[in-house]
Amino acid sequence: MTRSVWLKADDTVGDWETRKRRITSGLEAGIDWVLVDEDDVERVRELGDVKIAAFRSGADVHVMEAEDDDGAAALADAYIVGKDGEGDATVDLPSDLSGSADLTTLRRGDDHTNGSYVRILSKDYEAFAEEAARDGDHTIVVGEDWTIIPLENLIARIGEETDLIAGVTSAEEAKAAFETLEIGSDGVLLDSDDPDEIRRTVEIRDEAERESLDLVWAEVQEVERTGMADRVCVDTGSIMDHDEGMLVGSMSRGLFFVHAETAESPYVASRPFRVNAGAVHAYARTPDGGTTYLSELESGDQVQLVDTNGRTRDAIVGRVKIEKRPMFRVSADYDGDKVTTLLQNAETIKVHTRDGRTAVTDLEPGDEMLIYYEDTARHFGEAVEESIIEK
């Protein structure tokens, strides 16, 4: 599931200058969507690159054809019904939902209206949201003096029919929405002017997105000098913590934890954005759970960072440096299976052993080091049910 943060910035939050400040704070924090009125779509486009959802002002109002500087229609990425309609209780819900104007608009099947906004005022509105979810790509639900129970009901009943977006007013509420029923909402709609609250909500989204891996201890069998090879340094656009690095290895089933160059040295300055990852043939783990060859990485690609507890996050590759360097072949055993990789013969390359950060030059047979072990074969980086021998 890909989580998202939406920011509410329609006319109910203030005049355009107030809305503009809120949107700008959201852009700087890294929000995914802005929810505005139709009239503001073109102005938001001028502020920055973000997905825009626009409230339709009524079920029977056609999408406005505002034009940008090139004369092309400035359309939103999604149009949402419900404001000034049945969704926000401006218009009473019909006793028979087949007569709903909002739902009729959703069911027209045009390319514009593809989401709904519903204030959960009672069980009837909960049922209305369920019905809207059948026909909308996005279903935004906002609680009114409610507990988490209505959100639990909607998560359980809606499933994958729609992206369920929960209205929140704080990062704390966003965390609860992302954790409800251990599944959580697909996104949150934040209604806040506080830049810190917006930033914290985005951080919570990132935390909810992170994969957690089970790293295991493998026993070092051999550390052998192998001569020269083409070595890859991966310079990311992120500053890594002292316990972070990447998973790399010659065999996809056994990837070695290699620390980022965060440690100071008498001879070399720290490079906390860098992982000296290994030889060009080696695999690196990617954010989608796949693998890629180190030699194929280039600026703009994404790699997965991981810490010694298995917590992951994504990073953008800024630069890849490939140079000839002397190498070690490191072999380790996990549960009777031998896995290997090539790492540069240098004191600055650190792996993680029972003793903590350990230079590869200090590794000895019998040491235990962290790896990620996955008993599966891979084809073009994807796990497959196939017999493949790597040695």
TrEMBL record:
<keyword id="KW-0057">Aromatic amino acid biosynthesis</keyword>
<dbReference type="GO" id="GO:0003856">
    <property type="term" value="F:3-dehydroquinate synthase activity"/>
</dbReference>
<feature type="domain" description="3-dehydroquinate synthase C-terminal">
    <location>
        <begin position="218"/>
        <end position="391"/>
    </location>
</feature>
<keyword id="KW-0560">Oxidoreductase</keyword>
<feature type="domain" description="3-dehydroquinate synthase N-terminal">
    <location>
        <begin position="3"/>
        <end position="204"/>
    </location>
</feature>
<dbReference type="GO" id="GO:0008652">
    <property type="term" value="P:amino acid biosynthetic process"/>
</dbReference>
<keyword id="KW-0456">Lyase</keyword>
<keyword id="KW-0520">NAD</keyword>
<keyword id="KW-0028">Amino-acid biosynthesis</keyword>
<comment type="similarity">
    <text>Belongs to the archaeal-type DHQ synthase family.</text>
</comment>
<dbReference type="Pfam" id="PF26558">
    <property type="entry name" value="DHQS_2nd"/>
</dbReference>
<comment type="function">
    <text>Catalyzes the oxidative deamination and cyclization of 2-amino-3,7-dideoxy-D-threo-hept-6-ulosonic acid (ADH) to yield 3-dehydroquinate (DHQ), which is fed into the canonical shikimic pathway of aromatic amino acid biosynthesis.</text>
</comment>
<dbReference type="Pfam" id="PF01959">
    <property type="entry name" value="DHQS"/>
</dbReference>
<dbReference type="GO" id="GO:0009073">
    <property type="term" value="P:aromatic amino acid family biosynthetic process"/>
</dbReference>
<dbReference type="InterPro" id="IPR056179">
    <property type="entry name" value="DHQS_C"/>
</dbReference>
<protein>
    <recommendedName>
        <fullName>3-dehydroquinate synthase</fullName>
        <ecNumber>1.4.1.24</ecNumber>
    </recommendedName>
</protein>
<dbReference type="GO" id="GO:0102042">
    <property type="term" value="F:dehydroquinate synthase activity"/>
</dbReference>
<dbReference type="InterPro" id="IPR002812">
    <property type="entry name" value="DHQS"/>
</dbReference>
<dbReference type="InterPro" id="IPR030960">
    <property type="entry name" value="DHQS/DOIS_N"/>
</dbReference>
<dbReference type="GO" id="GO:0051287">
    <property type="term" value="F:NAD binding"/>
</dbReference>
